[in-house]
Amino acid sequence: MKLVIAEKPSVAQTIAKVIGAYKREKGYLEGSGYIVSWCIGHLVGLVPPDSYDEKYRRWNKEDLPIIPENWLYEVSSDKTEQFDILKGLMHREDVDYVVNACDAGREGELIFRLVYKKAGCGKPMKRLWINSMEDEAIRKGFDELRDGKDYNRLYDTAVCRSETDWLVGMNATRLFTTLYHHRLTVGRVQTPTLALVVDRNDKIRNFEKQKYFTIDLQLGELTVSSE
Predict the structure, then answer these.
(1) How far apart, in whole angstroms, are the C-alpha atoms of residue 48 and residue 166?
(2) C-alpha to C-alpha distance for 117 and 139, rounded to whole angstroms
(3) Which of 46, 81, 85 is nearest to 67 (CA)?
(4) Cα gap 119→106, rounded to integer Å
(5) How far apart are CA 177 and CA 223, in angstroms?
(6) Averaged pLDDT, 68-94
(7) Quick one: pLDDT band at residue 62, thresholds 50, 70, 90?
(8) Could you give the CA distance from residue 59 to residue 173 in angstroms, rounded to a whole number?
(9) Would you call 169 helix, strand, or coil by DSSP?
(10) How far apart are CA 44 and CA 178, in angstroms?
């Protein structure tokens, strides 16, 4: 059996239909030598600061910056059921290898790898890399499965992005919140995007009419000789 793990249930169902996994079970589909399941987005993520030290339950400026020596991960509390299903499938004796069918990109790589590692799976890993959900594209993708290790660098960049977001978000949010005594969330993407919106809004609100001139040009008839 080959275990295929997609990022979303809808994607898993499309893939299952193409490869012939029609039998529906709780949390997965099975058939034609395949088991197809899904992650429901991020099942595993970085733990909050207080998981490293109880003192971080209170937000104190003096405790910043918070920089974990060893990063810890946990299963999202509202997604434990699906994680347990995936973990059980990964450890089924009849599963020969696991196919990462999450979205073709950095985030999809991270979503799968964190589940794979958290579940303690050591079975061979292959990668389905497709950019279309057309039946032919899916079939071709399964014909050209690559070794999961070929995407280790992509996973590394995803981890770097995730940990950087955590460092910026957790530390900057606590800093500005304690400085101004008001909950102020800060994020790598959120904050600069908000700044662009505010800046544009200020320009519109403070717009002042400027005198300008237009030019009217009158031209007489132009006769072109064919000689």
Answers:
(1) 9
(2) 27
(3) 46
(4) 20
(5) 75
(6) 97
(7) very high
(8) 10
(9) helix
(10) 29
The C-alpha atoms of residue 189 and residue 226 are separated, in whole angstroms, by 65
Whether residue 216 is predicted with pLDDT greater than 60 in this model: the reply is: yes
Contact by Cβ (8 Å): 61, 179: yes
Which residues lie across from 202 on neighbouring strands? none
Rounded Cα distance, 35 and 123, in Å:
15
**Of 128, 117, 125, nearest in space to 96 by CA:** 125
Residue 123: predicted pLDDT:
97
What does the block give as tokens for 12? Answer: 């898993």
Tokens describing residue 189: 């993407």
**Cis amide bond preceding 65, omega within 30:** yes
Beta strands in the chain (DSSP E): 2-6, 23-25, 28-31, 34-38, 44-46, 73-75, 97-101, 125-127, 146-147
What is the pLDDT at residue 223?
52
Reported as a single tens digit per residue, the pLDDT across 129-185 is: 999 999 999 999 999 999 999 999 999 999 999 999 999 999 999 999 999 999 999
pLDDT at residue 75 greater than cutoff 60: yes
Alpha-carbon distance of 50 to 56, in angstroms, equals 5
- Residue 80 backbone dihedrals phi, psi, to 5 degrees: -65, -35
Computed on alpha carbons and rounded to an integer, the radius of gyration of the chain in Å comes to 27
Work out the average pLDDT over 198-207.
Answer: 94
Is residue 98 within 8 A of residue 127, CB to CB? The reply is: no
Tokens 């991020």 locate to 42
3-state secondary structure of 99: strand
